[in-house]
Each structure stands twice: as structure tokens, then as C-alpha cells.
């Protein structure tokens, strides 16, 4: 687009814009917004199969949303309604996208959008399962020598070393789908099913404070830290899975906090 305009042309267009009335400006904004939705909508339906390409389109969406929201005059009912419609359309696509993404690496392209709809973050594991100051990250996601078997094995979650009985919180709203009390493996543990294909697991607990099939809110108290099952000391083993695959939860731990802070700073 920028290639088409030279300095002179741009000046002329700006001149035309300056001479437009309020009503005409609103109409122009309406047209730009409608065209953007139409074009990007088309781009999206074409790229549905390819997440990589979809990310590029998502960035464009973010940009257009930002630009359009900045430009829309607040006193105009038309553009306000149009803005709402645009947000709704984008939300629909984001929801679809959230179901498809395999892990958190694709989440960064959504960060701009989350600022417009932070409520979605309540449904995505996007914070720590323990309170700040209550834990120390003692084992990362990935290959390590298992502390009990001595064998090299993939560690499918994060370990938070924490004192016994420290409170454990759900990292997103969802339904408790599994409560197990075992002397081996994860020991006493909880699995919560969230929206968009996410699940979280909280292992080696002492107490479980929720029931099966119970709906819990994000940050709701669900149990307490212990050392049940195959564990060498008090810690919480925390897993996140997406569409059946266990993924690294590290990028999720400060996801919500980061976006909320950006919102406050605005
Ligand atoms: Zn672990």
C-alpha cells in the first residue's frame, strides 16, 4: 500500500481528509473497519489449516484492532457499534485459534488481543499454582536424571519446592475431572479440565479440598503441598497439557500478570 503513495499524493489525501465533515469522517472510518474485517476474515478462512500462516494474520488483526480502536470517535454510535462487532468477530476467531494452538509459544501473538478481553485469561492456565514467596522452582520441564530411579527421563511438568501444607490454587477455571489418592507416581493429585483443550495436574499433595466434577475458579484453593507418591521432599509437581500433549508451563506462569500490568499502565 505504502508503495502507491508518494509524498505529494499523501499530502493531497491529507488535504482532502481535513476538508471532510464529521459525518463523512465517521462514514470513512466505518468503511475502513468494514473493509478490514472483510479482508482479514477472508484471509483467516483461507489459512485455517496452517497455524504458522495464521499467526501472521493474527498479528495483522492485532494491529488493525489497535488502529481502529484508537481512531474511532467515542461519540459516534455507528463506529462504536462497529467496534463492538469487530471485537466480537475477533473474539470468535481467537477462541477457534486458542483451541488449535499446541502450546504457549503461539500465545505471544494473542497478547495484544487479551488486553481487550482479559476475561479469557481466567479460562487459560496463566498464573502460578502457589502464592508468590511460597515456593522455589526446583525442576524444569524436559530431560533430567530422575531423583529416584537415577535414569535419564523426561520430566513432564515443573516442580515447585514448597513447605508442607502451603496452599495450592487452580491456575484457571475449570472442572475437576480426576482425584486420585495413590502411594506411588503423582501420589495424591488433582486433574482439572479447562476450556480450549487445556488440562492441569497438581501432584504429591497432602490434602485435597475439592470434589470430583466440581467447577473451580481460577485462583481457587484446591489442596495443600505434600510429598505423597514418588517424591523425595515436599513439592508440588505441576503439569499443563494441551490437546492431550504435555507442554512446558513456564511461559504461562506470568502470562496473566504481565497482561494485567500492561492494562493498568495504560
Ligand atoms: Zn515433578
Automatic annotation (TrEMBL):
PANTHER family: M23 FAMILY METALLOPEPTIDASE, PEPTIDASE-RELATED. InterPro entries: Cell_wall_metabolism_enzyme, Dup_hybrid_motif, M23ase_b-sheet_dom. The lineage of its organism: Bacteria, Pseudomonadati, Bacteroidota, Flavobacteriia, Flavobacteriales. This is M23 family metallopeptidase. It comes from the Bacteria. It comes from Flagellimonas hadalis. Residues 154-249 form the M23ase beta-sheet core domain. One of its GO terms (molecular function) is metalloendopeptidase activity. CDD domains: M23_peptidase (cd12797).
Amino acid at each position: 500500500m505504502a508503495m502507491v503513495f508518494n509524498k505529494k499524493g499523501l499530502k493531497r489525501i491529507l488535504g482532502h481528509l481535513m476538508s471532510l465533515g464529521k459525518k463523512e469522517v465517521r462514514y470513512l472510518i466505518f468503511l475502513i473497519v468494514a473493509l478490514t474485517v472483510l479482508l482479514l476474515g477472508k484471509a483467516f478462512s483461507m489459512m485455517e489449516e496452517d497455524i504458522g500462516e495464521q499467526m501472521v494474520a493474527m498479528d495483522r488483526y492485532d494491529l488493525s484492532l489497535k488502529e481502529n480502536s484508537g481512531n474511532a470517535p467515542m461519540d459516534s454510535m455507528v463506529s462504536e457499534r462497529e467496534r463492538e462487532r469487530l471485537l466480537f468477530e475477533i473474539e470468535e476467531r481467537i477462541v477457534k485459534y486458542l483451541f488449535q494452538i499446541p502450546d504457549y509459544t503461539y500465545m505471544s501473538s494473542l497478547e495484544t488481543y487479551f488486553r481487550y478481553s482479559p476475561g479469557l485469561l481466567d479460562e487459560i492456565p496463566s498464573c502460578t499454582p502457589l502464592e508468590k514467596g511460597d515456593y522455589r522452582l526446583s525442576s524444569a520441564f524436559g530431560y533430567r536424571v530422575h531423583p529416584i530411579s537415577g535414569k535419564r527421563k523426561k520430566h513432564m511438568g515443573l516442580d515447585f519446592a514448597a513447605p508442607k501444607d502451603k496452599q495450592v490454587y487452580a491456575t484457571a477455571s475449570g472442572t475437576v475431572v480426576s482425584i486420585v489418592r495413590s502411594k506411588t507416581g503423582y501420589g495424591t493429585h488433582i486433574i482439572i479440565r479447562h476450556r480450549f483443550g487445556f488440562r492441569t495436574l497438581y501432584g504429591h499433595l497432602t490434602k485435597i479440598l475439592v470434589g470430583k466434577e466440581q467447577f473451580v475458579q481460577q485462583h481457587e484453593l484446591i489442596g495443600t503441598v505434600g510429598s505423597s507418591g514418588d517424591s523425595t521432599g515436599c513439592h508440588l509437581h505441576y503439569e499443563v497439557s494441551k490437546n492431550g500433549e504435555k507442554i512446558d508451563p513456564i511461559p504461562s506462569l506470568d502470562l496473566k500478570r504481565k497482561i494485567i500490568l500492561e492494562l493498568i499502565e495504560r
